[in-house]
Fold this protein.
Amino acid sequence: MEDFLSNKGCCLIRTNLTLICLIVILSVTVIPNICFAQDCINVEFLFDIQPNADQPSDISIGPNGDVYLVDGVNHRISVVDSRGRWKFAFGRKGAGNGEFEHPLGIDISDDGKVFIADSGNHRIQVFDLRGKFLYLFAVKSGPGEKPSDPVDVAVSRLKGYLYVSDNDNHKIKVYRQNGTFDFEWGRFGEGPGEFRYPGILTINESNEVFVVDVLNTRVQKFDPFGKFIANIGSWGVLPGRLFRPKGVAVDKNNRVFISDSYMGFIQIFSDLGLFLGVVCENSKNRKFTTPVGIVIDNKNDRLQVVEMRSNKVSVLKLLP
Amino acid sequence: MVKTTPWLYIFLILASLFITSAALAAEMSSKRDCAICHVMWLDDFRTDKKPLIEWQPGNVLMKDTQGVVSSEEICYSCHDGYVNDSRSIVWKYSGHKTSVKPSSRMSIPSTLPLSNKGEIYCGTCHSAHGAGAAPDDSGITSFFREKNIDSKLCAMCHANEADFKRSNSHPLQTAAFDLPDTLFKLGSKPGTNKNNVICQTCHKAHGARGNKITVVDNKNSKLCVTCHNGQKSLIATKHDLRKSFPDEKNIKQQRPVESGPCGVCHLPHNSANKRLWAKQLPPGKASRSRFCLSCHRKGKVAEKVTITGTSHPLNVNPFEKIQSLAASGKKLTLPLFNLQGAPDKNGNMTCATCHDPHGSKADSATARSATNINSDTPMSFLRKRQQDICGECHRDKNLVANSKHDMTKMAPETKNILNRTPSESGLCGSCHLVHKGQGAFLWAREIKTPDENIVQDICISCHNEKGMAGKKVIKDYSHPVNVSPFKKGMTTTLPLFDKNGKKSKKGDMTCLTCHEPHRWDPVKNIDSDHYDTEGNSQNSFLRLQASPGSKLCGNCHAEKAYIEKTDHDLRVTDSASKNIKDQTPAESGVCGVCHLVHNSENWARLWARNFGTGENLMGMMCNSCHSGKGPAKDKIPQISSHPQDKLINSADRNVPGRIDFFPMFHKSYGEPETLGTVSCPSCHDAHIWDAGVNAKGKGANIEGDATNSFLRSRSSILPCKDCHGPDGLYRYKYFHNANERKANMRKK
């Protein structure tokens, strides 16, 4: 043994072992932290939209540039123009056509159909841009499932798919625009394609689906048919980590913006999960009050953030 | 080796990364579940990197003490709709107070911790680890520290309210009636027994719509009347003080607009007295009526509607006071109350017996004008129509309806002292005022000739020349009133009254002794119209019939009633004869043949016939009949007078009841006297055929002899002897026949 240790080969091994240990230590400590380096994506505050809402949740922009805000506690959708001026509202509490029960989510198709996740009524309602009721369909629960809890809906250009996040059943349910159920994926869990309370959805230009997985503190990216692609964000409170992700939006550069309602920040990732930075103002982290639904107005390079407990929408300019 | 080393390094690096990540992932799950709430437990705070949020030291590891973990922000981060939607329940509407110190009167159990500031916080009631963290029967997980079955968790702190009897609070854990479904639709939580009242029947710790975290806004008492629907009719009445007295405050210094219409008088917790009373009760004996007097007394908010003057008696049991009611064996539909104010069928009459302070259907028209206080009437808030109210206890008075004493029929234009017509005052209110009445009878009419006796006063208030009963006026030469039969040695079952109108066995004879003004006919119960019927001696509101027999008169003048069916009962001997009122014996009654109770033409003995001839008034009365054209024309004595110049002293014998009773009467006035002249009634008592029998007659015209023939005395010790010696016996026996008298004397 001593001989073995005393020869050159032994020295080489010792050197290698030292190097290996060093590499292992670095891999555990330094390399991961490279991902957490704070970076700022600067924005400029433009104005607030304060449409007399009560704990609004989600937002969408119509083809005409109007902003549609889900004012769910008031059981209505409020509409303002691109400068935040009040236009009109539609809906009231109830279970009839055009009536809502604590709606949470919204999306608007290119052809101007407004899709509302009417959560308390377990259904999706469809309106035109002026708030005229068009039709609705129920989000049904499968055997053994809880009553459906559709908290968001996203409309895809691919086959006009409507992706509905069923929060209480931890599934994404996919419908045709006429309300016909097509397919679904997901179950309760922490693995890829599994959810713990899926929330807000968004779809990028490639028709890929991004799902906020609230209690798994991540956004999952899927192909249009539910095949898992990537996790974006991880668990924690360091930059690049998420504690209560709520809103997700994708800009024209395929950057993924994720709001965290507890921490009050919006962080930006690549569509494969690489942390890019925190939304900042004057190079300082921009703090929001319970940011939830977010939307990016690519035409105007604006980021619009629903701040639930402030009952407002912050409109920010995305700086180059 | 050299060539392979870089690849080895790369492999090792990747392997180490994988192993590390896998190890972290395996460890993550349990840690992550805790850190979902316990954010400060995250290892991210224990690195040299700057986290996005600040580390908040303190309390993080302190058991049962508020830290970030139970901050509102942590709760809201899940309850914003994206795990559970509690936005409306917790953050839109009212909820249990937090960030305040509990009242010093409260004792907070150690199992329900306060924050390190001693304040209530979410974690005081909620914990993910508590005994109540499991889903309840309805599948809802409320994360309570203790199971909240039937509001037991609430009672752990609110022990005073839960001990409702001690704290004069709304009953809990009991079911007085079926709770309505509408209550639960409002948001009330049913107890294990659906009908038991629990804290959550009225309150919601989260999502409450009203002040004091009531299920709904209770400023209009919506919550109260959901169960107490019968009291809903109070709204917009004068007892809805929001409009009538908006500045009045309850003991919690709440104005009506704050307390709601119910809260003006009732507080669900820590009230001033029984009945959840929200006012200070006036001093005095325990009674339901005291609650009313909280406001309806001088210096209080309803002093304009105080009970002044003479009012209906309170705190009496009507079954004990009203014989006819007790005898009827029927129950009242109006409530009686015990001393604590609770309904009790054996209790007493109180204000609330007649009045429903919450408004009733019967008086909705009179009680509705909540702002016009001065429009109040004595009929306000009555439980029934006034006459129905009175008639509940005074059932024997109901027959006044449709009679001559029904003012709605007889004198609809007249007004009582409150300037109300009969239609306004009601059947009974024409003559009686339950409040502010006059005298014992709560008289409602103007008393024009106040006299010694209230009974006479009230009758005369109508029965006077200018009164509404001007055609039925009692004039001179009528039966005396305000005299005591008792003092005259009489007994009677008819009512006698003292000066104040109170019944008294030793009281005076009054109108009401013979008359019952509420009942036209003493025998028949007449409820149809009979107000235009002319009366006779069988009705006319008499308590007993005065004809054909002598029931009424004989009730006092019992010894006079022996006249019935004797020769002096003209129904027997001359039924066609008529008195001066042109009444036959059948119409006038046996007594009315000779005496008129009211308005006789003759003051003496209220004589009802034309006097006969003679020098002595008493004899003239006898001669009314014992004369040539009279009914007793066959019984005309040859001699019927004793020398009027002979004064007889009858001091020893002028004592009624003595066997040798021999009264004297003034020859002109007929008044009894001891030294006087002999007249017919000295020897005869016209009312008793046989003084030895004291019985009514046999209904046949019988020929008499010296042992009967209405003779008073059965004694041989006659006053005749005083002057005439032994001859006196013959002079007595053959008094009416001088020949016989002399013949017999000669025989002797």
About this structure: The two ends of chain B are 193 Å apart (CA to CA).
